[in-house]
Amino acid sequence: MALGAHLADWLGPIMVLAVLAGLFSGYPVAFVLGGVSLAFAVLGVWTGYFDWPYLLALADRTFGVLQNPILLAIPFFILMGTLLQRSRLAEDLLTTIGALFGGMRGGLAIAVVGVGALLAAATGVVGASVVAMGTISLPVMLRAGYSPRLSAGVITAAGSLGQLIPPSVVLIVLGDQLGVSVGALFGAALVPGVLLAGAFALTVVVIAWRRPEAAPALPEAERPADLGALARQVAKVLVPPLLLIVVVLGSIFLGIATPTEAGALGAVGAALLAAANRRLRVETVREAARDTARLTTMVVVLLLGSTAFALVFRGLYGDVWIEEILTGLPGGVIGFLIVANLAVFVLGFVIDFFEIAFIVVPLLAPAAAAVGVDLVWFGVMLGLNLQTSFLTPPFGFALFYLRGVAPPEVKTTDIYRGVIPFVIVQVLALAAFVAFSGVLG
Amino acid sequence: MDRVSGAVGSAVSWALVGMTLAGAAAAILRYLARPLGLAPALNALGDVQWMLFAAVVILGASWALRDDGHVRVDVAAQRFSPRTRAWIDLTGHLLLLLPFCGFLLWALWPAVAQSVALREAALDPGGLARWPIKVLVLGAVGLLAMQGLAQAARAVLVLRSPRLGDAVDPTTEADVPEADLPVAP
């Protein structure tokens, strides 16, 4: 009996190990969470931690997730992004910005950073944005004579910018999990995100200056001869999507619309833009809606699984265990931030953002609040950290996604070595953020 | 079973378009509602949004299961053989997914039954009846369980076929009778 009671105290930690084992088997994450939770619920009832009626709360939680007005913003923003992609407006955007900067060495690469910052923001799922950026811009860059290394590096870096720059889906989910306002998170992430995009562009300039052959200017023949035509193209292709994003974000920051409302209007706006360019076909809408439904389902089903996990884990006092470990670290806030960052960074190698947001963040958040870390800044820091993790060879997710769409002449080592300067910029940005943002309170 | 999930998937995509339109309409209406006395319509639109959202997500779950759209951690799994992966899927469906669906059904049942018995509706003026969506959620969990069975059957086919599993055609090999399922290992 004494042994039984002793073992029961370890149910929380064992549950975490069981989930990790399940994750690595490759079985869908949402159902690993749900199934393992059920097994430990049985153990929990058996060892007297809680009764079956405690688990009936799952019904309320499930309906709560499905009625959550914050999560409702996710499909809206994803639809806005997929509409812009499927109607090929994103592609136009790249070629236009490319033409604008084309005369400059490295101009096309800077254009990629710009488009990444603008568009990936609307999709906000690393896989989707890196794949989109890769299919659109990699062939264009290689044709223009850019080195595969620089092309691969800048595309993965720009594609993962969407984590941070609002209206990123990542931030919506983090806001929900941390219990802070999505508008506040958007506001806090905007400046670091834009600065980071600037730092990427600067990196490109430096590379183009040191190794001119890696980033040639477009040849005279391919530059638009007529400046008036270029200006008209810019006005037609570049300004409307930019305006759409500014209006959507502006209305959130000014408090005119909730993120959910702004997202819905943004999606309709994207459809109208496509229509204005005669690109809105039933087929386009259907494909965009399908992509969106798929992504949304994936995210929310995962959340349902992790809801069951959280309920049972809490019933086993696992949350108390984690909080005690995290708040008892030597070095107080600094110690906590270092451990939290390292944990998230390493986990980012193997699990995607949403698993981290739904499983790890709820465990970190109470401890962060307890040691006095501002949760809004904490959220932005996590976004920045994960972005670094996704870019870091050899495990970074973004690198695998690009590998999937890159032609064979771009070698895997090109991708790994190309991304290194950007990873260095990222790490510096993360350090600077922790030092200056006020996350330390 | 596969076809049912596929059809549901298409319906879900269009529901999403409807949801977006309702969302946009609600956003605009919020500013017009008070002066025009349209508050009830606004509440109804709000309800329509989350109900469609709930429908999309919960019905999309089985559709995604069929198309292998749920996130997996494949760092290790991509090195496994198709047979190993089929074993993992089979074990997972039988030991994780199906019990979890059963658990959800068990947990949801009293709440849904009560909702239906009371003919639950939103309290705000103009709010819509709530009990149908709860029934739908319950039904969708059932659908997920059925698709789980179909997937388990597919994994068995992979394990039985002499060569690699890719040869199994998802449209013709579905709906294997449950009797063919082995006892859970």
Strand element count of chain A? 0
Radius of gyration of chain A: 23 Å
Which two chains have the most extensive interface, and how many residues on each?
Answer: A-B, 64 and 59 residues
Percentage of residues in strands of chain B:
under 5%
Described by the principal axes of the CA atoms, the overall outline of chain A is: globular
The poorly predicted ranges of chain B are 164-185
Alpha-carbon distance between the two ends of chain B: 24 Å
**Which regions of chain A are unreliable across 5 or more consecutive residues at pLDDT < 50?**
none
Mean pLDDT of chain A equals 81
Main sheet summary of chain A:
none
Instruction: Note the overall shape of chain B.
Output: elongated
Total DSSP helices of chain A = 21
- The secondary structure category of chain B is mainly alpha
Distance between the termini of chain A: 47 Å
